[in-house]
Specification:
By secondary structure, the protein is an alpha+beta fold. It is about 25% helix and about 25% strand. The chain is built from 18 helices and 31 strands.
């Protein structure tokens, strides 16, 4: 899924200023937005906004000259996605007045039964969760109705991830009758009149209509979410009237209009937590228009597929206690506890001095789902205090950034291998289990009785099952995909592999390797051998006494006592041809292997020509000018 962009919310300037109870110049309002942590992105008229959005409907004459402020909102502030939320937040920020408390109606005291939604077990096959609420006595006008629809669209694009996680349905409760059922049926069995249509469709007919008709352009992009499912989710009322076919479209009979007073809200989801946040946000933003009790929401009883009863929404506040010292230290300020509590009240976090006097007790409303940790409270204190008011201080520590030694050696190797005529490639860090083992003729991924490969517990595709333990498989896969390239084909990669390691806290450790593959009409073993020798020369490692003997038996130049030397010895690795492979040995340890790739390995990767390859570890060759090894895995401490 694509990461959503920063939401931009258009608001009518005059209506916003009326809600704030104060008028601002454009510069003053821009400064206010900056102080609060949002940004005035653009100023335009209502007519220009409609033209920009491609709205061809003729605008009301009185709206043509209205000034519109387009405000950039942080992606995690879902409570600011409508004019109601923005005006409420800015007014509290300016005045410091405590934010309104949200409540759920006491249905038992009112002597009124709760509306009920019954979830059928089949929904687990497609969209297993649903949460509901009712807004009673709501009063819509054109502006409020537009804001109500726009908020749902913004939530769908942002928090709901294009309706894949959550889909919102809103209905006129006076046109339908509970109890309601949330079911999953074969597409052909679902028949209803969808919103903005005049005739009845089955679900497959409706999908085809949206694919072919221009009127379905906006909904077409959501069809894939359930199109391949055996059953489609559908919500019925007591009369078997279809309320919605989530996450695609609502039914026409329950359509909301300006005359609607009671709104039934249902959110179907694959993620229950996000469904709750979505429902709470919609209820919190528009419960202020409810009568006679503003900011009061009527709960709905949801019976899940197991028969357990849940009541939504939960409008209660979460409680946090944050030490004053923690806030001051992390924000770089020096404030007393009462001042901090006052600043947090400006950010819609009702706060008071803790019982011990050295901490702040914070009540987090449902609108602030972004507050998850004490550090989020620190951020709000810093915003309310003003980042520009924080004193500049010289850091207690002074550090200079620089390239890590292992990366410096890696870059040197990349440059040298490229100058040897090899083309650099970049392969995936994840691969299939077969590519890492079976294709390489390695039947077991066990070493010393323990697995060596990091395995993905629930892989989305067979292509990405394990973290690679070798670069050779990725390089051979690349060669196989470029088999028709001009010969000789020479590729290399310098990158990390990953092994399980119980000695580190995360249970796995990265190791830097370098790999090179040579493909031609002949094996090219001599080319890879030559590349190994050149690589060692660049790393400052000279051949051992045995290797420093000339082919005719005469003595060649011998290494000095201060030189670091390497040797080669026969290897027996299954991915290479027997008798045509060797280990690279450095300081008594095998740090690499090279040879002719085994024909079975070549066949597995779809390569029809002979190849030779080398793979060496980089980290053993990371040392300083005195040839003292450097740590490639430093331990970071606070």
């Amino acid at each position: 899924l694509e990461q959503p962009a920063m939401p931009v919310v258009p608001v009518n300037r005059d209506k916003l200023f009326a809600a704030l109870g104060q008028e601002y110049t454009e510069t003053q309002f821009e400064d206010l937005c900056f102080e609060y942590g949002v940004e005035l992105d653009e100023v335009m008229t209502e007519a220009e906004l409609r033209a920009q959005a491609g709205d061809k409907e003729e605008a009301p004459e009185e709206e043509g000259d209205d000034v519109i402020y387009k405000i950039d909102i942080p992606a995690n502030r879902y409570d600011l996605l409508c004019v109601e939320g923005i005006s409420r937040a800015l007014k509290t920020f300016v005045t410091g007045q405590p934010a309104h408390a949200f409540t759920t109606k006491d249905m038992k005291a009112a002597g009124t039964p709760l509306q009920r939604m019954v979830v059928k077990p089949e929904t687990a096959l497609v969209r297993p969760f649903v949460v509901c609420a009712v807004l009673r006595g709501i009063k819509f006008d054109k502006q409020r109705y537009k804001s109500f629809i726009d908020l749902q669209d913004k939530l769908h694009m942002n928090l709901c991830r294009q309706r894949t996680l959550v889909a919102i349905g809103t209905h006129d409760l006076n046109k339908i009758k509970g109890p309601f059922t949330y079911e999953a049926l074969p597409p052909e069995e679902i028949k209803f009149v969808p919103l903005k249509q005049t005739r009845e469709f089955t679900a497959p007919e409706l999908f085809q209509h949206y694919k072919n008709d221009e009127s379905g352009r906006q909904l077409r992009k959501f069809l894939h979410i359930i199109e391949d499912s055996l059953v489609y989710p559908v919500i019925y009322d007591a009369n078997r009237t279809v309320l919605s076919l989530p996450p695609i479209i609502n039914g026409s009979p329950s359509q909301i209009t300006l005359d609607t007073t009671d709104v039934f809200i249902e959110c179907t989801a694959t993620d229950l937590t996000k469904a709750k946040v979505t429902l709470n946000t919609v209820c919190a933003m528009f419960s202020e228009y409810c009568t006679p009790n503003a900011f009061e929401v009527e709960p709905v009883e949801v019976v899940d597929a197991f028969g357990d009863v849940h009541v939504f929404p939960d409008m209660s506040e979460r409680q946090m206690t944050v030490p004053t010292e923690y806030i001051n230290r992390n924000a770089g300020i020096e404030l007393d506890t009462p001042t901090i509590a006052t600043l947090l009240n400006k950010m819609m976090l009702r706060s008071s001095v803790g019982a011990d006097g050295s901490s702040v007790h914070v009540s987090v409303p449902v609108t602030r789902s972004d507050v998850l940790h004490p550090c989020d409270v620190v951020e709000d204190v810093a915003i309310a205090y003003g980042y520009n008011n924080i004193k500049w201080v010289v850091p207690k520590t002074s550090t200079v950034g620089g390239e890590t030694p292992v990366n410096a050696v890696s870059d040197m190797l990349r440059q040298e291998l490229a100058m040897c005529g090899y083309t650099e490639i970049l392969t995936w860090a994840l691969c299939s289990h077969d590519e890492s083992f079976a294709y390489m003729r390695k039947e077991e991924d066990i070493k010393g009785g323990n697995p060596v490969a990091v395995t993905i517990s629930n892989p989305a595709t067979a292509e990405f099952q394990v973290a690679r333990t070798t670069l050779l498989s990725g390089a051979l896969k690349t060669v196989g995909a470029n088999a028709e390239a001009p010969l000789p084909l020479k590729v290399f990669e310098v990158n990390d592999v990953l092994f399980l390691d119980n000695s580190v806290d995360v249970g796995a450790k990265n190791h830097r390797h370098a790999v090179a593959v040579y493909m031609n009409v002949t094996s090219g073993f001599e080319a890879i051998h030559q590349l190994v020798n050149r690589t060692m020369e660049v790393l400052g490692i000279v051949p051992s006494d045995r290797l420093a003997t000339a082919a005719d038996g005469s003595a060649a130049e011998k290494p000095s006592e201060s030189d670091l030397t390497y040797d080669i010895e026969p290897a027996n690795e299954p991915q290479f041809f027997p008798g045509r492979q060797a280990y690279v040995v450095f300081q008594g340890k095998r740090v690499g292997v090279f040879g002719i790739v085994h024909p079975d390995v070549l066949n597995a990767f779809g390569i029809s020509r002979p190849c030779s390859a080398m793979e060496i570890q980089v980290e053993p060759f990371v040392f300083d000018q005195f040839k003292k090894p450097l740590n490639c895995h430093p331990v970071h401490t606070e």
